[in-house]
């Protein structure tokens, strides 16, 4: 059986490299490429695709996780395998919640990538070892782990947004944003926004620019 692939990444060189690696597999066929997340959603709906290899960060427009959610929401949708350079809790949780079948880092060796594609195509979960370990660590210490919403709030703090701006971005009241920050500070053992961002970045919970 041939596995039909869609490559979604905004860097032409990355797409060319992926195609070169994947074309060496006899049961893989790259049927389409997308330079934007929006285009990936369109192609996944119109082309006969089994697995979408999805980057998370595109130059502008839709985020990879949002595109993953849009793709997987359709009946009979292709599987989405996230292929990214980011291994933060915030990115991993967003992708998994969006319906991604797998999460792989771009430095994965070709044989690991090929195995992940086949696993995803078969409807099973394909997680990079480092990603699986981070998820297991969260499950072992749930009381200490930041929730997806807390990670979203903290990521926006790291991006420089005020509580008012965060409340508008996430459709929350400012009181709720403050409550999330109180919980974040307690879990991270800090007492300020700056310290929270620094601690979260050190633990690879969020991305910093």
Describe this structure in words.
Helix 3 (64-72) runs parallel beside helix 4 (89-98) and helix 7 packs across helix 9 (174-188). Strand 3 (51-54), helix 3 (64-72) and strand 4 (79-84) form a beta-alpha-beta unit. It contains ten helices and six strands, in the order E-H-E-H-E-H-E-H-E-H-E-H-H-H-H-H. It has 209 residues and is of the alpha/beta class. The longest helix has 15 residues, at 174-188. It has helices at 12-22, 37-46, 64-72, 89-98, 110-121, 129-140, 148-158, 163-170, 174-188, 193-202; strands at residues 3-8, 28-34, 51-54, 79-84, 102-105, 126-127. Helices cover 52% and strands 14% of the residues.
Radius of gyration (Å): 18 Å
- Total beta strands: 6
Helix content: 40-55%
Spatial separation of the terminal alpha carbons = 43 Å
User: Largest sheet at a glance?
Assistant: 6 strands, parallel
The percent range for strand residues is 5-15%
Task: Please outline what is shown here.
This protein has helices at residues 12-22, 37-46, 64-72, 89-98, 110-121, 129-140, 148-158, 163-170, 174-188, 193-202, and strands spanning 3-8, 28-34, 51-54, 79-84, 102-105, 126-127. The chain is of the alpha/beta class.
How would you describe this structure in keywords?
alpha/beta, 6-stranded parallel β-sheet, 10 helices, 14% strand, elongated
Secondary structure blueprint with pairings:
Elements: E1 3-8, H1 12-22, E2 28-34, H2 37-46, E3 51-54, H3 64-72, E4 79-84, H4 89-98, E5 102-105, H5 110-121, E6 126-127, H6 129-140, H7 148-158, H8 163-170, H9 174-188, H10 193-202
Parallel strand pairs: 1-2, 1-3, 3-4, 4-5, 5-6
């Amino acid at each position: 059986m041939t596995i039909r692939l869609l490559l979604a990444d905004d860097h032409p060189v990355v797409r060319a490299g992926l195609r070169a690696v994947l074309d060496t597999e006899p049961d893989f066929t790259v049927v389409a490429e997308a330079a934007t997340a929006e285009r990936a959603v369109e192609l996944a709906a119109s082309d006969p695709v089994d697995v979408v290899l999805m980057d998370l960060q595109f130059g502008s427009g839709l985020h990879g996780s949002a595109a993953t959610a849009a793709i997987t929401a359709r009946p009979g949708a292709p599987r989405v395998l996230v292929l990214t350079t980011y291994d933060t809790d915030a990115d991993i949780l967003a992708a998994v919640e969006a319906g991604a079948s797998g999460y792989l880092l771009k430095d994965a060796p070709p044989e690991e990538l090929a195995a992940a594609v086949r696993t995803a195509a078969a409807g099973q979960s394909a997680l990079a070892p480092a990603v699986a370990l981070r998820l297991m660590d969260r499950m072992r210490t749930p009381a200490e782990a930041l929730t997806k919403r807390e990670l979203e709030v903290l990521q926006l703090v790291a991006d420089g947004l005020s509580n008012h701006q965060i409340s508008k971005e996430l459709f929350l009241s400012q009181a709720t944003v403050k409550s999330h920050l109180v919980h974040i500070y307690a879990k991270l053992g800090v007492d300020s926004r700056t310290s929270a961002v620094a601690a979260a970045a050190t633990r690879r919970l969020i991305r910093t620019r």
